Amino acid sequence: MLIRLFVTHNKKLLGHLPSVMATRQSSDMAKFNETLKSAKNIVFLSGAGISAESGIPTFRGAGGMWRKYRAAALATPEAFGTTPSLVWEFYHYRREVAAKAEPNPGHLAIAKFEKNNPDKTVTVITQNVDGLHARAGTKNLLELHGNLYKTRCTKCKEVLVNTDSPICEALANRGAPDVDQVGSDIPVRNLPHCKKSGCKGLLRPHIVWFGESLEAAVLDKAESVMSSCDVCLVVGTSSVVYPAAMFAPQAAARGAIVAEFNLKPTPATPDFHYYFEGPCGMTLPKVLSE
Ligand SMILES: NC(=O)c1ccc[n+]([C@@H]2O[C@H](COP(=O)([O-])OP(=O)(O)OC[C@H]3O[C@@H](n4cnc5c(N)ncnc54)[C@H](O)[C@@H]3O)[C@@H](O)[C@H]2O)c1
Ligand SMILES: [Zn+2]
How far apart are CA 254 and CA 225, in angstroms? Predict the structure, then answer.
């Protein structure tokens, strides 16, 4: 079955529980840490919020604009189809920002937790495309929505790692986020192209855009990890981007213990056993080292 990426607030679709859970919700770090100690299968489900403290804007709130465009509107196949030059400038900007960013204490605490608990199965499922979990040292990682440093040929579909900066000559010094920058006039022939002889197709970022299907193998793996975890930590995600948004509510519904780390409550908060409010670069290291 094809599962497409989209934003929804439909609680039924997301598998939310009746919010009876809210009355039992806790923010007791020591108690949650005890639960973690006895758990065997632990999943971290992360979103853009975990990278906010590394200086990478999220899609919701103040950082959700690039020039006069909503970032989420540029992360679509339609935008790439009509203005590939503009979308490449946007992704070039995001690649450069993420390349200069460093993993923050939240990413590092998760990587350290995995390393220090070889007797447990620890998996990180991330919606992020910035590569910071891997750079922090996380080994068992599933990138649900792709990666800024991978390209896919629109013709032969080959996926390659590409960390070139800039990714092509024409994008050098492009991608400035200022609102007074308008349009983009790079001819398509000067955008990144496949180097395979006989192909020369236009490359695109290997990212799952809104409206597109998640890679079946990655989604299957994520669903299998989620269905066997006994504890799930939901970190810095708005819980409105489907299908990732349904993972944790479904895990809670079948009895897994779920803890959420966010600056503010999300539509899924009432479904979870624990809620730790605040920047996750502060709350995560505390909870994981209790
Ligand atoms: N870094 C990245 O790779 C990146 C950045 C922006 C968007 N995206 C993509 O955009 C989509 C958006 O979904 P999403 O849910 O991941 O992000 P989102 O932008 O929709 O939501 C971010 C969430 O993080 C919370 N948050 C912000 N700063 C935080 C902090 N310091 N500590 C804890 N929580 C914090 C916000 O309250 C919000 O709930 C995803 O598909 C993702 O692939 C990725
Ligand atoms: Zn090709």
Answer: 13
